[in-house]
Design brief:
Elements: H1 6-15, E1 22-28, E2 34-40, E3 46-53, E4 58-61, E5 65-67, E6 82-85, H2 88-102, E7 108-111, H3 121-132, E8 144-148, H4 152-161, E9 166-170, H5 176-182, H6 191-205, E10 209-215, H7 223-233, E11 238-244, H8 258-270, E12 275-277
Parallel strand pairs: 4-7, 7-8, 8-9, 9-10, 10-11, 11-12
Antiparallel strand pairs: 1-2, 2-3, 3-4, 5-6
Helix pairs in contact: 2-3, 4-6, 7-8
Bound molecules: S-adenosyl-L-homocysteine.
């Protein structure tokens, strides 16, 4: 910055630094317009970020941690546990680098990459401030979705911030015992507690909550489960997003066939629960839900 006095430059050097994610590799999907970016951090860890281009918008799925300690047993991000939290600027720079690389503005964000945002809450909070700031990236809170595996007390804290961001809850089973089998975090927070936290979030923000439900063949896809979801969500301002489980090579979960997925959707919709089936993008480049991992196979 030659346009500021040398003494000020020296002072800035002492009190601050400008971080920089290094673009390591970009993989482009052959089946849709998805790109997966691998960024190298200063400490050589690698994180993954996915850019999804639609006709009217660009959504970026950002990572929040290197790895994850939540242990959901259908997800690749957690296979090697948590390495470390990302700093606010490291979360932000994923978007900046993607905007620069494509010379396009990112309009929507989903905090659905590697990591659990509410397990890195203070950095996530700071990131949300920066990304929303007029002098930052100026991305509206309403265009941001934060997904959590259900850390109830942090959901309450988030609600108390009263930011109009979208909250998504990974439910994956309406039964505590089954949920505990596939998501260890469920041992700490019962379904009743996390649904109450969602209701509190709705009360505070007036926003409709998304309930994510990854459909796994023979595990959580029966009619009985659909009926229990209806009972659980009755009267709540929410919609359900069904995610046919994506393949992770270390796991052997399968997605139900298409007819079965749409039958499940139909049961929920008949009970007036708005339901969508997520179109996973970038599965050929390991960019779909649950496929992001720490490091990468060369
Ligand atoms: N830690 C956050 C963000 C995770 S990724 C959370 O747990 O919500 C976003 C969604 O993808 C979550 O609902 C997660 O459970 C789901 N997911 C993870 N692995 C998946 C897989 N292999 N197939 C389909 N969905 C998966």
């Amino acid at each position: 910055m030659n346009n500021i006095p040398k003494s000020l430059r020296e002072k800035l050097r002492q009190v601050s630094y400008i971080g920089n994610l290094k673009k390591e590799l970009v993989l482009e999907s052959k089946i849709d317009k998805t790109k997966k970016y691998l960024f190298e951090l200063n400490d050589k860890n690698i994180i993954e970020t996915v850019m999804m281009e639609y006709e009217d918008r660009i959504t970026v799925c950002i990572s929040n941690q290197v790895g994850c300690r939540m242990g959901c047993n259908f997800c690749a991000s957690t296979l090697e546990g948590l390495i470390r939290n990302l700093e606010p600027w490291e979360i932000l720079d994923q978007i900046i680098k993607i905007q620069e690389d494509n010379n396009k503005r990112v309009s929507n964000l989903v905090l659905m990459g590697s990591g659990e945002p509410l397990d890195n809450f203070s950095n996530t909070k700071k990131f949300l401030e920066l990304v929303n700031d007029k002098n930052g990236l100026n991305i509206g809170y309403r265009h941001i979705t934060l997904s959590t595996c259900g850390i109830a007390p942090k959901m309450i804290e988030l609600a108390d911030l009263e930011l109009p961001i979208n909250l998504a809850l990974s439910l994956h089973s309406p039964y505590d015992d089954k949920r505990q089998e596939i998501m260890p975090v469920a041992k700490a927070y019962k379904i009743e507690e996390i649904i109450n936290a969602c209701k509190y979030y709705i009360k505070k923000t007036n926003r409709r909550v998304t309930i994510e439900y990854s459909l796994i063949k023979g595990v959580n896809d029966s009619e009985k489960e659909a009926r229990e979801i209806i009972r659980l969500l009755k009267g709540m301002l929410c919609h359900v997003n069904l995610i046919p489980v994506n393949n992770v090579e270390e796991r052997n979960y399968e997605r139900p066939d298409k007819a079965h997925i749409y039958k499940f959707k139909d049961i929920l919709e008949k009970a007036h629960i708005p339901t969508t089936v997520r179109i996973s993008m970038g599965s050929d480049i390991g960019g779909a839900c649950g496929q992001l991992r720490k490091g990468y196979k060369k």
